[in-house]
Inverse folding.
């Protein structure tokens, strides 16, 4: 028997840090040497991030260039250093530095390189995809293996780049993620007339769909797209939506009583773990994620704090905006307070959901909890730099590409940190994938994260990068 695995992504933002040495003339020399680089297009000059994660910290590419700088005037020796590192793979992603520059990417930023004109949303999408012939998301990959027959195999309640759907044409349209803006009202969208005093008879709906299908078969659209992936996916989506209506999902997923509708039977019990379901959208996301998985409708669900104003029960009283409206962005002005409040909120909701999964028997596997085959991935878009003035208790931090990842699952060897942080540069470094031993100076990337998640959840795919040391 093959156990169904569950991926739950907590889409937040993470922390880690760094420090180096910027040369004002270097960007001009870089663009004179590589005018084809994206950062140099249209008469622009490359940003310092071509060689730095944040000033003055050098990234992997910058460190390679620095090691190859001979003594002499910068304008004379930098060109020779750039040429010397062209054949190297500074960030360990399988592409030479020159290949990355010519592919319009800035090197030194890890495997799924952030485009030079990237930013927050690109960084977010990068944290949830695997780059192969086509970009495939972690959520879809897990659902392809474990979401067979499910009506909503991938459900995403996050925002921005975390919603990136991928671009793999080989995947079925039924794996397209359903986007949930409001967990409380989303279930109502799953049926056109359920709960109404005079609902449309199912037989009539079926006849209407058959008539539409006959009309489609005679349309110019179908004639022009006959035999194409576009038409196949269009038909798959029609069949999926019809199946959702027939599947009776609405009464199983409702988080609150609405006119003519009653809440799902598990809601009363869920309030013991998530007491602010009615007023805190993040807790409501966790509650809906639980119902989707428990009722066998989803195998991969993404939730995360958003920029909505927060309300929560505190000592039985409704309290508004306990946490920064922009969550982790408050770290720009107050790092300690912003990080403490935002991580406290993220971990508290995650812990509540995990306890609920632990204390709920899996309806598919008698004697096992739902947590037994689950994994939570805290996906992040970037880390934070270290700009604390000496002796200051209050300080702000900027974004940094150097980062870390948190995975929580009974399928992994937990309660440990893999890799480490260099005490001199404060940059993270990797570890031996077989033994788990720290390897200072090494580089891990998104493909390691993707591989570890899929290995733990028994999701095979060509080119998977196994991380054996983490597996139980």
């Amino acid at each position: 028997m093959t156990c169904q695995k569950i991926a739950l992504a907590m889409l937040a933002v993470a922390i880690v840090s760094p420090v180096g040495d910027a040369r004002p003339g270097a960007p001009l020399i870089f663009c004179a040497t590589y005018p084809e680089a994206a950062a140099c297009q249209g008469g622009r000059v490359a940003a310092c991030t071509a060689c730095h994660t944040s000033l003055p910290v050098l990234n992997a590419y910058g460190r390679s260039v620095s090691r190859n700088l001979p003594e002499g005037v910068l304008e004379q020796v930098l060109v020779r250093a750039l040429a010397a590192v062209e054949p190297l793979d500074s960030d360990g992603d399988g592409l030479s530095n020159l290949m990355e520059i010519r592919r319009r990417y800035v090197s030194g930023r890890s495997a799924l390189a952030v485009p030079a004109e990237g930013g927050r949303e690109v960084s977010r999408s990068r944290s949830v995809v695997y780059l192969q012939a086509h970009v495939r998301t972690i959520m879809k990959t897990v659902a392809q293996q474990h979401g067979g027959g499910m009506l909503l195999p991938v459900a995403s309640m996050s925002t921005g780049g975390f919603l990136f759907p991928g671009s793999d044409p080989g995947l079925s349209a039924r794996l397209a993620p359903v986007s949930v803006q409001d967990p409380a009202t989303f279930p109502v969208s799953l049926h056109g007339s359920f709960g109404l005093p005079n609902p449309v008879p199912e037989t009539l709906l079926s006849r209407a769909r058959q008539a539409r299908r006959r009309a489609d078969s005679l349309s110019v659209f179908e004639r022009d797209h006959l035999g194409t992936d576009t038409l196949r996916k269009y038909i798959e989506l029609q069949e999926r939506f019809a199946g959702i209506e027939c599947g009776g999902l609405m009464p199983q997923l409702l988080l609150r009583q609405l006119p003519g509708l009653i809440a799902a039977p598990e809601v009363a019990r869920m309030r013991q773990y998530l007491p602010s379901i009615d007023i805190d959208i993040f807790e409501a996301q966790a509650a809906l994620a639980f119902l989707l998985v428990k009722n066998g409708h989803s195998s991969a669900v993404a939730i995360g704090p958003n920029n909505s104003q927060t309300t929560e029960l505190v000592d039985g009283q409704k309290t508004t905006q306990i946490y920064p409206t922009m969550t982790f962005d408050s770290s720009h002005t107050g790092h300690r307070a912003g990080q403490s409040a935002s991580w406290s909120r993220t971990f508290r909701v995650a812990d509540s959901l995990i306890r609920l999964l632990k204390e709920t028997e899996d309806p598919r596997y008698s004697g096992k909890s739902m947590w037994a085959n689950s994994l939570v991935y805290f996906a992040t878009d970037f880390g934070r730099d270290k700009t604390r003035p000496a002796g200051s208790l209050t300080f702000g931090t900027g974004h940094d590409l150097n980062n870390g990842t948190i995975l929580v699952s009974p399928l992994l060897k937990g309660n440990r940190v893999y890799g480490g942080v260099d005490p001199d540069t404060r940059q993270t470094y990797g570890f031996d994938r077989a033994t788990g031993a720290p390897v200072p100076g090494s580089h891990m990337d998104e493909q390691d994260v993707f591989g570890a998640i899929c290995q733990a959840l028994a999701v095979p795919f060509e080119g998977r990068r196994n991380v054996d040391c983490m597996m139980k």
